[in-house]
Amino acid sequence: MIRLFNTLFRKELLDASRDKRSVMAGLYYALGTPILMCLLFSVLLKQLSSTDELQITIENAEAAPALVHYLASKEINHGEGDKVKAIRLQLSTDFQQSMQQGRPAVVIIDADRSNDRLQSAIRRLERALSQYSNEVAHLRLLARGIDPNLLQAIDVQMHDQATPDSRGGMFLGVATLSIILTLFYAAMNLAIDTSAGERERNSLTLLLSQPLSSLQLVLAKVVAISCFSMAGLLLILVVSKFAYGMVPWQQLGFSISLNLDFMLFAIVVGLPLALMSASLQVMVSFMAKSFKEAQTYVTLVLFVPLVLSMVTTYNIADDYLQWLPIAAQQQAMIAFLKGAVIPVPQLMVSSVITLLIFGVCSYASSRLLKSEKVVFSL
Amino acid sequence: MIRVNDLYKTIGQVKALNGLSFHADNGTITGLLGPNGAGKTTCLRTLLGLLKADSGSASIDGFDIARQTQQARQQIGLFPDPFGLYERLTPREYVQFFAELNGMSSQAAKLATAQVLSLLRMDEIADRRCQGFSQGQRMKTALAQAIVHKPTNIVLDEPTRGLDVMSTRVLRELLLTLKQQGHCVLFSSHVMQEVAALCDQVVVMAKGRVVAQGSPAELCARTGKNSLEDAFITLIGTDEGIAA
Amino acid sequence: MNKHVLSRFYQASALLPLLVSSALFAAPAEVGVVTTNPTKVQLVPCYAKDLPDRLLCGTVQQPLNIKAVKDAENQTISIHFAIIPAIKPLYPTEAVLAFAGGPGQSAFDAAAVFAQALRYARENRDILLVDQRGTGKSGLLQCDGMDLVSQFAFDESTADIVALAKTDTLACKEKLQVDLNHYTTVAAASDFEAVRQALGYQKLHLYGGSYGTRMAQEYMRQYPAAVVTATLDGVVPFNQSLGALGAASDASVAALYAYCEASETCHQQFPRARQQLQQLIQQLDAAPVSTRVRHPRTFALIDLTLTRAKLQQAIRFALYSNNSRALLPYTIEQALAGDYSPLVGLMLSQDIVQQLSVGVNFAVVCAEDVPFWTAESRAEFAKSYLGRTWMQSAEASCAVWQTPAVDVAYTQPLQTATPVLLLSGGLDPVTPPAWAELAMSQMPNARHLVAPHATHIVASQSCAPKLISQFINQQSAANLDASCLNQELRKPFFTNANGVASLTAEQE
């Protein structure tokens, strides 16, 4: 039994490892995703933090030189040319007069608020203006012998439970999402090739004519594919570690660091998922009548993990979803990265469910291989 | 020794096997001759347990294929049509893989593989991947796979299809050798000359059943024709689906 | 009299003026207890005022008398510390140890100020805040002050300040019952070292503000091997008495009026600004003004006895911030005209004094400063009003405390090859740039950067946080591009109670 399995497993590994196209497709994902994410995050962070100089159009600047000067100290300047954001700050002509008389001096921010790329810049400008307004108001009260703190009727003190690692929120979700999906994408091509492809190349009939059980055959295939999934996982973990290490998280007040402990944790948590992913995709591929059809089906089936993972990432999951495979594992990974308490019961239950699905799919595949319809695509 | 006893099999609306019975003995080359659609492939698939007969039985060296599937399969070497090679493996890896699947230890499998590869004069191509092999090289690889574990029975499905003259000769010589070694050789074909030249026994099939069985000479005698081809046409009542 | 007035005088430097009074001590949250690896110290999540970040707090027990031979008879003091965790701990074995000013301020209370000033340094390293013994949560030595109403009514001109300082200090000494000898800069250094060892940090980067620079220098002197870099912001050298603060304050006033004269709007509005100040001082010197003003918070009418002492203190504290500096000429003019409301506003900024540790303040002044005065330095201090009054009450109080002087070697400038970055504000009313020059005479790897328009504590008002982080990362100040420190930080002068929008010609 074991010897037969070994023979089958070795052959699957050998055959799959020489399938450069399928292997590379999986590895490209593992290699490319973190790098892509790294670039994406960097751009996003830049937009969010925008500590660089902000150039806008200031109209009628001579009306309020002190304000313009204040904005300059916050690195908000009037500019000309390409780098200028589409924000116009219009200072009213009677700015100085209003100031002197103690009337609110009007400034107009003219910008498109629905423009995502402007939002953080607009907020930054608004913040700077309100700080200036506050500063002047405080001094006005002082000049009248009144404690400016009177303006602050309540003092809201925020006690943030977050740790620097736990702030990543959405970023962590996306990072773990990409890690978990590797287990599926790295397996996809191989799973189709070793099942639908094997049948299309006519070697499946020959194999099934040999003295072995179809379950052995299926298990050997599934385990071999899982090995590649795990290799993909390992790769994406290592690449992620370096790629995310280059994103300037600290500017946002949090960090995402994939240390060795996390890698080990991800591998342990990922193993059942790899088995499930391989068995599911093999089953679906066998159910399809042709290679092409299998590709379509598998792509459709991969929506399920994607949706489960998305739901976790964007935190729109109902409570019961947290017990489901993928969602629970991802949740646990996020918790691990955040340094929060890992939801052990959920992780356990979902891991068991994951392994059950692996069992069911493997068994179903072996039943399929006993079906004349499936084997000969009748 | 292969025995087929009163097999019935319906696929869809078609009665593919309709009371098929014959036997192929050791030390004999038996040809399964029939027009396209006669049920040859269905017969072989049933014989290997890939299809389940609706009724009737088939046994290999006394092992019933339905009940003792694995033992029965172990007695067979299959030369399939198409060959079902793994393009990314070398003939050596490929042949050794099947040797091990048939229960040989990896050491024994390695040895047997080397032997069969040199027997078929494949040493030059033994460590090249099958990708890009000629039809003859593919045939040899498939043949090596079928006989590497030295099964008593060798089943060949349309073995000469698409082969050039040289390859056909290699195949023919090998089958004769196997016969002399006492193997039971069963092959299906719709090529008349092939069957006439090689077979000791011919099983003529049409519409899922045996129309006649005997040596080529017997069949000619029985129909009163000079050539097997004429005899065959007489036997099945039409020349449709026969290659000369 | 009152602690309050006294402690006000003793404020060598009420540091970090951004820090407003009434520190809100974080109640240790009932979250899980975290223990870090190399330590036996328990770290508990905690929060500091105005800083939403979750910090980790803990304590170490230290002998009260560091020179005691027998441990058994020695009292212990509990030293409280907090860690502001690095955002991305690239250097887990290093920390930035921040020293608060005062003397007597709690580093933990100033957590928000440090978190802001060290925000770039924090990206990769923890920030460590230790409450110096006698301050904050490390056994605060505090005596009651005077409330605002009595303070306003108090007439310093008729009271015998020296006698009052004496009785007042006696009461405080009675209440605290401590030997201030255990609370000097020299005695406190070992507490910081104990915290460092307990937490397992191998190397420290120091950041000190105001008096904290002196504490940092003393730590370097005692534990040179633990320090990789030191940033001293608003430097207090060992070889400089705090009595010189009067001269510093006067220089800062002079700079303010020079700026007003150079400013078109200010000069137009207050052509006699300098004379007005002198006039008001002379008037109050001659006779305090008794009047009624609105309480700045309750709006009740209360008595104000406006004395020269009150005016000088108000000005002194107004000088700390560029915002309140902009109010000064207007305030003086209004006061001369009989409207004291703006002056009442400026008197509010003295509130920062409230949370200072009186004990530590006196320990530093009486053991490390007063004993080393010479006839020459006394004459020097006496040149300014602030120096004179400070000197008088310091001597009176120290006579009560009877704290022995520290070793004379203490007053020698620190000798160190460690990279040191010194920061000074050109308008600083307490620690002028010249003090930094005094401090660095024996520091071959030091660089002194001056932000010409900054006041006290440069890191709170300029691009210095970035420079500090670069300095820590490069472990050298040589390549810092300090040009951003030249940024204009001064504010346009208020020409009426609503302010103005225009700047000086120079700024435009």
Q: Concise description?
A:
With 378 residues, chain A is mainly α. Chain A folds into two domains: 2-45 and 166-375, no CATH class; 52-151.
Alpha-carbon distance between the two ends of chain C: 49 Å
How many structural domains does the protein architecture of chain C include? 2
> So what's the overall shape of chain A?
elongated
Order of SSEs of chain C: HEEEEEHEHHHEHEHHHEEHHHHHHHEHEH
- Main structural class of chain A: mainly alpha
CATH domain topology of the largest domain in chain C: Rossmann fold
What's the total helix number of chain C? 18
| Strand order in space, largest sheet of chain C | 1-2-3-4-6-5-7-8-11-12
Percent of residues in β-strands of chain A: under 5%
User: What's the mean pLDDT score of chain A?
Assistant: 86
Protein structure class of chain C: alpha/beta
CATH class of the largest domain in chain C: Alpha Beta
Measured as a percent range, the helix fraction of chain C is 25-40%
Largest binding interface between chains:
A-C, 43 and 54 residues
Question: Could you describe the 3D structure shown?
Answer:
- Chain A has helices spanning 2-17, 20-49, 65-73, 95-101, 116-142, 170-200, 203-208, 214-245, 260-287, 291-301, 303-313, 327-338, 344-368, 372-375; strands at 54-59, 76-78, 88-91, 107-110.
- In chain A, helix 2 runs antiparallel to helix 6, helix 6 (170-200) runs antiparallel to helix 12 and helix 8 (214-245) crosses helix 9 (260-287).
- Chain A has a four-stranded mixed sheet.
- The mean pLDDT of chain A is 86.
- The two termini of chain A are 30 Å apart.
- Helices cover 66% and strands 4% of the residues of chain A.
- With 378 residues, chain A is mainly alpha-helical.
- Chain B has 244 residues and is an alpha/beta fold.
- Chain B contains nine helices and ten strands.
- Chain B has helices at residues 40-47, 69-74, 91-101, 106-119, 135-147, 165-180, 192-198, 216-223, 228-236; strands at 2-11, 14-24, 28-33, 55-60, 63-64, 76-79, 153-157, 184-189, 201-206, 209-214.
- Helix content of chain C is 37%, strand content 16%.
- Chain C has helices at 3-10, 111-117, 148-153, 161-176, 185-199, 211-222, 245-262, 264-269, 273-286, 308-318, 322-325, 328-336, 341-347, 358-368, 375-381, 385-401, 433-439, 464-474, and strands spanning 34-35, 42-48, 51-63, 76-84, 94-99, 126-130, 203-209, 227-233, 289-294, 301-306, 420-425, 446-451.
- In chain C, the strands form two sheets. In chain C, strands 1-2-3-4-6-5-7-8-11-12 form a ten-stranded mixed sheet, with helices on both faces. In chain C, strands 9-10 form a two-stranded antiparallel ribbon.
- The longest helix of chain C is centred in the middle third of the chain and has 18 residues, at 245-262.
- The N and C termini of chain C lie far apart (49 Å).
- Chains A and C meet through helix 3, helix 4 and helix 5 of A and strand 3 and helix 13 of C.
